[in-house]
Amino acid sequence: MNINEIFxxxxxxxxxxxxxxxxxxxxGCNLKCIYCDTKYTWLFGEKTLLNIRDSIPLEFHDKLGNxxxxxxxxxxxxxxxxxxxxxKQYSATNIVITGGEPLLQKKEIENILLHPYFENFNFEIxxxxxxxxxxxxxxxxxxNVSPKLANSFNKLENRYxxxxxxxxxxxxxxxxxxxxxxxxxxxIIKIQKELNIxxxxxxxxxxxxxxxxxxxxxxxxxxLAMLYNYNYSHxxxxxxxxxxxxx
Length: 247
Hints:
The protein is built from 10 helices and 9 strands. By secondary structure, it is α/β, with parallel strands linked by helices. It has a single domain, classed as Aldolase class I (TIM Barrel, Alpha-Beta Barrel). The protein has a 9-stranded mixed sheet. The two termini are 22 Å apart. The model has no long low-confidence stretch (mean pLDDT 96).
């Protein structure tokens, strides 16, 4: 499996905010969100950066940034035995599988969930909702689904696949939407109505890759969530550690 990093921290987002967790961050993603706070999992090489820059309006170039990464530095081949060896040093029993887009490596994740070592762990999978969920009979798995809006600058047909999102809706799932400005609520309401998602399963989360951005956007998004009777998700790891990795 292709792993970017493994570390222990608390869950910083969603319904389990504050829960001690082991994070397994997979490398690779099938989308290219300009506001992504983990570009080091997929923005490999200057050519990738330039291609994205050419596809978005000039006024959003600063949000994309100028940094790119090398796949050989950010992708580590691991077996499940390697993975267990890394995890044994930690005490948390909640595992957050994230990325990038971890479901690109669905078979590898299935092997983790079925391995006897992980029998007493609970799991969360962070996903963009474009790849079908794992079909395993388990009540120890929660999906944190983050459908991407127009503010991500991904093509609609790539970022929004209703048939897949409907399958997540049948699972133990919550839906987190990254909000940049108040007008984003129109698209969120449209998706909610199209998929008939209960408001209790929806979380609004401020777009932010730094504490400064979080401080700027957090209050607006919280008030928006209150106004429309959605949940608000902060980003505690950014609040406490800014843009530091591995925390």
